[in-house]
């Protein structure tokens, strides 16, 4: 179970230089096609952190189409992870625990700023608690899968919430009023680009919200989704662990532009969602060895409209092994000529 203390840095072996803590918040102004997020990755034993802020309008297939990106590496690690301000102008403050946050950002060159409030809809979900995640033992051997990595077996929480505030982008101000999920992870983390996992968020206000973590694989250039690793359904403030899910998506290059998702929770209740992209981008700047093809999807369900982030996270080494001209299936197609 997640406690109030989980908003801050966690006890750790001071000799483990790979110890990492992250926090992540996506946000959107769907009617404008605006999708953004802020991310912090801290390595307290090294005394450094990195921060990435990105905002785009519409569907961006190339990095040069993205409206704003501010990746900052080797910033000084804050003393507290529950209340800090970084030199890049990002401030994050947890209000009494890991359920409510205030986030502010002021770009040093004046191109972008935001003032956002995240207010959680439920107690944060702990994927390692059998009382919350019915798949915790079934998927335990997943740690041996290089696509997933061992990080999922370390500390982590997810929380759905209501995000309000304002975003200013190149002098134009937008009101932010959306529902999304934020998370915090902690534990040893070696930066090896071997992973392929999708992070899925589906939100219909306070009535319904879904989170899924789903491993992916690439077969002969086609992205396929495996059984869900973990997830939950938050319905009217009550959280129910997911027991199965099916994900399909179509894409332009590797950028998702539409999807179909079915989910069944521990109650036996099933949901089906159809998504269409309203904005998105390839996010290269959150980690040098990964890229996340992020999309904010417009979902339909039960006559309602919702939105949420759909993020296909690929390690660059994984992409190289499966998509580059040196990939075995490409070599077979070309008769060994690369």
UniProtKB/TrEMBL annotation:
InterPro entries in the cross-refs: DUF7064, DUF7065
Domain DUF7064: 194-310
Sequence ranges assigned to domain DUF7065 in this UniProt record: 148-189
The protein, known as: Uncharacterized protein
Species name: Paracoccus lichenicola
